[in-house]
Amino acid sequence: MSRADHMDVAAYALGVLDQQDTERFEEHLATCWACAAELETMVPVVGLLSGIDGETMTALEQTRTDPALLDRTLVAVRLHRRRTRVRRLLATAAAVVVFGGLSGVGVAGLRGGGDGERIPQAEPTLTTPVTGPPADPTSDPGDPGTGGNEQEGEKHNATDPATGVKTTMWVASKEYGTKIDLQLTRLPGPRTCRLVVIRKNATSEVVSTWSVPGGGYGTSTNQLPLELSASTSAGLPDIEKIQVQSVDVNGIASPLVTVADL
């Protein structure tokens, strides 16, 4: 019984022997308990070794007489397996990238943790530009209501022929009395001013005081008007006139502009 007969166990298990060698090995197997036992232990791994072709087995057979061939064969097999693994890893990574780019975000957003409940997704919000009401082309640029809230009450315009001071005044009747909004221009400075309400019963009330800087208001030096608001407990029907007065260092008041057509 030759040594080659014992070496054919793996080749027989993989089915790579030709018909003549297969018949010869089966005759040997019937009388060799050692090969029979070896063949039985190889059965579980036959599936793993089935990928090895006949040429590889022939090369392995030849290595028993050529150690150098064994080394070259092992190197070639390792290189082939390494290249195969690399190609599989690259293919898998590419598939993951493509799949993740197409559906990963959508799938991840559909379900929560382990409860399988659907997570509501935020929808994109479309922003609508918000614009204010169009400006009134007929508005007076000097009107303090321009570009802001409209003034409340009856509007009165007055210009003093002696001082040249000009005012626009809005007077509104309130439960507590009267509300007064006014704008002053052509008001030189520096000076101290006050707003006085003169009732029809000849009594008066100072409802506001302020200082005017050297450039004044609504002048060539300072074109911005002076705007202010005040209130009085006097009812609108009880008011005869509203007057802006200038007060000197001695406390003497003199009228700058008066609104009397209330």
Automatic annotation (TrEMBL):
Alphabetized UniProt keyword annotations: Membrane, Transcription, Transcription regulation, Transmembrane, Transmembrane helix
Name of the molecule in the record: Zf-HC2 domain-containing protein
Residue ranges of the region described as Disordered: 113-164
Transmembrane segments annotated in the record for this chain: 89-110
Domain of life: Bacteria
